[in-house]
Structure of 2-C-methyl-D-erythritol 4-phosphate cytidylyltransferase:
Amino acid sequence: MFAVVPAAGVGARMGAGLPKQYLTLQGRTLAEHTLGRLLAFAPLQAVVVAVADDDPWWPELAVAGHPRVTSVTGGDSRARSVLAGVAAVLERAPDARVLVHDMARPLVRLSDIQALLDHDDRGDGAILARPVTDTIKQADADTRIRATLDRSLIWRALTPQLFDARRLHDALLSALRDDPEAITDEASALEAAGARPALVAGHADNIKITVPEDLALARFYLRAQEEEGLAWQFV
Ligand SMILES: Nc1ccn([C@@H]2O[C@H](COP(=O)(O)OP(=O)(O)OP(=O)(O)O)[C@@H](O)[C@H]2O)c(=O)n1
Ligand SMILES: C[C@](O)(CO)[C@H](O)COP(=O)(O)O
């Protein structure tokens, strides 16, 4: 099994002076936190990281030289970065299963990744997700309520997302050709190809660091995980 980690974003919503994956949490970059956890997950043969072709920070990280880490050049969207990573996996292992995980989600629990594998029926794939607990409103263009949705059927997609590499590759190619804006995660590409991936409940602390206030939340969750005894051997 391989991991593909999209890490070629610029972090515009974070508004920092550098891409958010290189901001630090307790002295280590988000990238080191994320990769430290993935590399601690024994079933992963290798991790393919998609980085921007003009990224000067990536080569400076010791983890960039880890024997189970390789990098590819990402694309101008998350989906194209993932596609580049999956193509690299297929060159090495045509029958591989691939776990796609955002570099911007540094607090993923190994137990959640294992739960994803446990639910993987090697069919339509599976994703970590969270059932919503708030009331969900659908908005009109004038930011007024159009409808209230049935929240019992609404989940927030997280990562990792686990699929057959060839199916994911071909679904991404088709979806990027037909409706690229609609593809904001791997499952949406498989859905467009008619698949029905499974939803696997993951922990709420598997947050995506997106806007500045997410950093304080991440610091809180990291301390909470350490108090829970979830310490990872950093590579
Ligand atoms: N062209 C892109 C855009 C995003 N990503 C990666 O996809 C993950 C989730 O994307 P997001 O949180 O949107 O990151 P950014 O695109 O960097 O953020 P923003 O949209 O605020 O610029 C991140 O790890 C990001 O590095 C990527 O590999 N290639
Ligand atoms: C893949 C994802 O993390 C699932 O919630 C999300 O779609 C990524 O969105 P982003 O705008 O690329 O951060």
Remarks:
- The helical segments are 30-39, 78-92, 110-118, 165-178, 186-192, 213-227.
- The longest helix spans residues 78-92.
